[in-house]
Amino acid sequence: MSITKQPDGRWRLDFYPEGKKNGKGKRIRITRATKGELIAYERYILDNVDNQPWLGDKEDRRKLSELIETWYNSHGVTIDDGNTRKSAMIYASDCMGSPLATEFTAKLFSSYREKRISGKLKRTERLDKVSPRTMNLELAYFRAMFNELKRLGEWKHENPVESIRPFKTEEAEMAFLNHDEINLLLEECANSSNKHLLTVVKICLSTGARWSEAESLRGSNVSKFRITYTNTKGNRNRTVPISEELYNLVVGKKTRGALFTSCYSAFRSALKRTKIVLPDGQMSHVLRHTFASHFMMNGGNILVLQRILGHTDIKMTMRYAHFAPDHLDEAVRLNPLAFNESKGD
């Protein structure tokens, strides 16, 4: 397609609305006084070429990977874990032979899932095989992607993974550190060559912050005896009080820009030196779990904890309810045996 200005000052449109097949195709050449007229005319012609219902739908030849890119550019880029989802789905697409989107079926994903669970397909050498929970996440990624593309008008077929049921999984164990382990960890962090590690760990233990939230703090996030977390997982800013001691430690580092450099690898090394054993996948959240568990064991309010942790759903926070000292104490007083004994008295 080209729009060119002619010697007489007018404009000419020259294009093939349906493309050229084998060097042939319907060609349109038209001249008008203004370029805008031709742009509008071209748009009108192309819209009508695509909108010919009597010819039936054109065959969708897009690959699954192309659909993933479309989803990411139109929606995934706006969500916090968009890159993570995109990478996981692109890897899955490659493992399934990079199929056309219309060839992606429940059976194909189920076969891929079985190979990942059994360890026949490894995304990283660090893990021999993935957990059912990981595959449930990938299933959720694809399901959400197709649902969103349908809403956007980018996908006109059924959701190919809608019928697949996720694996049943046990509730993940939430490891937390006791007081002796906390002191041991703080000692190893203090001995680390990373000058920011101890402060970041203390922030996590004092405020229940996610590691990424604490590590990415900027001077503007810290005010007197307060830390405000922004760009959080729940997309809600939250402010948590801190002690004067922690405040002085934080502002003593820097008051403007990024406060800390990356120190997660140093944390991993420090934790390894303590010989503390954690369940798989718990390392990055153990400090957050430790804060929440001790908060409830010390008599904290579950609704206050929800606000501190930034949970949008109270069900997430209720995982810590059993740590409260009086949790379900009524079971002792109101069970049928106790009730019969009290009546006998």
TrEMBL record:
<dbReference type="Pfam" id="PF24624">
    <property type="entry name" value="Int_N"/>
</dbReference>
<keyword id="KW-0229">DNA integration</keyword>
<dbReference type="InterPro" id="IPR050090">
    <property type="entry name" value="Tyrosine_recombinase_XerCD"/>
</dbReference>
<dbReference type="GO" id="GO:0015074">
    <property type="term" value="P:DNA integration"/>
</dbReference>
<dbReference type="GO" id="GO:0006310">
    <property type="term" value="P:DNA recombination"/>
</dbReference>
<dbReference type="InterPro" id="IPR044068">
    <property type="entry name" value="CB"/>
</dbReference>
<keyword id="KW-0238">DNA-binding</keyword>
<dbReference type="InterPro" id="IPR057084">
    <property type="entry name" value="Int_N"/>
</dbReference>
<protein>
    <submittedName>
        <fullName>Tyrosine-type recombinase/integrase</fullName>
    </submittedName>
</protein>
<dbReference type="InterPro" id="IPR002104">
    <property type="entry name" value="Integrase_catalytic"/>
</dbReference>
<dbReference type="InterPro" id="IPR013762">
    <property type="entry name" value="Integrase-like_cat_sf"/>
</dbReference>
<dbReference type="Pfam" id="PF00589">
    <property type="entry name" value="Phage_integrase"/>
</dbReference>
<dbReference type="InterPro" id="IPR011010">
    <property type="entry name" value="DNA_brk_join_enz"/>
</dbReference>
<keyword id="KW-0233">DNA recombination</keyword>
<feature type="domain" description="Core-binding (CB)">
    <location>
        <begin position="62"/>
        <end position="150"/>
    </location>
</feature>
<dbReference type="GO" id="GO:0003677">
    <property type="term" value="F:DNA binding"/>
</dbReference>
<feature type="domain" description="Tyr recombinase">
    <location>
        <begin position="172"/>
        <end position="333"/>
    </location>
</feature>
